[in-house]
């Protein structure tokens, strides 16, 4: 998809939007520094902590007529995804599709292989982890 096809291509952010983004990123970073597992695990296990956070309070006051939610890939640093999440045995990757799937019951879909098994076929784990980072960054 080219930039001309993106629905938000003509949007010009106001200075206040940049300030809000900085504040939200700072609050997100602080939560992650306090508990780097805040964005993983059961939603209900983390719910009380999330709802009592300054980040949630800020989001709750923003003018948006929907229930707020956040996706794991948008909520944590890339380093966390690669160095922690991609070391679980229930994370699978399809090299051809450049796509991840997660299931403790296993993935039977064609082309999906446990990330930990893929890592074993590389010269070293660090090279493979860098490959995953570049994949996630769409390089």
Tell me about the largest β-sheet: 3 strands, antiparallel
Assembly annotation: single chain
Q: How are helices and strands ordered from N to C? A: HHHHHEEEHH
Name the shape in a single word.
Answer: globular
Secondary structure category = mainly alpha
Unreliable residue runs: none
Task: Determine the fraction of residues in helical runs and give it as a percent range.
Answer: 40-55%
Whole-angstrom Rg: 18 Å
Cα distance, first to last residue?
Answer: 14 Å
Mean pLDDT: 83
How many discrete domains? Answer: 2
Strand order of the largest sheet: 2-1-3
Number of strands: 3
In percent, how much strand structure appears in the residues? 5-15%
Count of runs of 4 or more consecutive helical residues: 7
Q: Could you write a compact summary of the structure shown?
A:
With 139 residues, the chain is mainly α. 46% of the residues lie in helices and 7% in strands. Helix 1 runs antiparallel to helix 3.
3D structure, described in words:
With 139 residues, this protein is mainly α. It has 2 domains: 14-75, no CATH class; 81-136, no CATH class. It has helices spanning 15-34, 43-51, 54-61, 72-75, 78-83, 115-119, 125-136, and strands spanning 91-94, 99-102, 113-114. Strands 2-1-3 form a 3-stranded antiparallel sheet.
